[in-house]
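Posted in: Structural Biology > Protein-Ligand Complexes

Title: Requesting predicted complex, zinc ion in pocket

I'd be grateful if someone could produce the 3D structure tokens for the following input. Sequence and ligand are given below.
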Amino acid sequence: MEEEVVKRYTLLISFACFFLMLFLAMMPTIEIQAGRIIAENKEKWEQAKKKDAIVTYENFISDTKVEEETTESALPEGTIRIPLPEESKDLVIEAENDYMNRVVTLTITGFDESLLEGDPMIGSPDHIMDVSAYMDGDAFVVQFLTEDVVEPTYEIEDGHLYLKLNNPWDIYERIVVIDAGHGGRLPGMVVGNTYEKDLTLKIVNYLKEYLEGNSAIKAYYTRTTDVDISLYDRAELANNVHANLFLSVHLNALAKKSEAGTNGTMTLYDEDKTEGEHTSYDFAKIVNDMLVEKLGSKNRGLTKGHDIYIIREANMPVALAEIGFMSNKKELELLKSDEYQQKCAHALYLAILKAFKEGY
Ligand SMILES: [Zn+2]
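-- Reply #1 --
Done. Output follows.
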């Protein structure tokens, strides 16, 4: 580039930088953490939490204004109180938990918004970062953005609904986080038109059916559809809910034609987590042995996996199963079949049961 052109470009870049900085300085401060936007009333929440105050949610229908009330209330921690109509027989109440996005949605169908005028929604701000509420026809919809994963439960008493946002480990003794490898824009291994992300999802959704039939175990899933989930969010879910076990489901593949004969099951563990009697190695061994036994696949044993982000970051016994090789024609055919996917899911389910039986 000639000198004159360089000068002109330098000037242009300087101007661009100046305007960019001006633009940034004028923007309202919004804090972004782990991909979520924390609302501007965060400070208010923090103050209310420190004071142990009960928050009165006013002007709920038009906006999300929060007002503090200093009076003591008998409301327990993490509880929100909402008035209910006297005639509550047509009432339909639903609490939905989008835990990956930390959003709890409460919907009360058959609600009359005038109820809130003399008896506003009140509650403690524990766990809550932001609240929004609106009427959708005759349904009152309240959404809570929470700091951590919570488990909503509710009770109806004295003409009110008491919604409680619980810590998962306060209500569940056994928690497992199941991770279907890859997803969304990241297909994982690709062989022909078969994507690893689709097969791992199918196996995990069969596993979900088994786990849903067992009320002694609470399972959380990093994904149950074809969506992008970051590695950070996968490990963070397991750590946030204080899971007893973290199981990630993957499939293998080798690129070279000469390796097309390679098949079998292997499981990765964290070789750096050796403390305690229930190590990542021991859990991975339970998973691998069960898969090999139930699938009749070749046993490729255990592999060190500390270099893999989710294995390294998880605070609990973690196993990453590479169930089979998509690059092996025979094994791929099996992995694509519903029957074999169900077998994989059943083996994983039995491995989880075995681990819990052994006291994980
Ligand atoms: Zn994978």
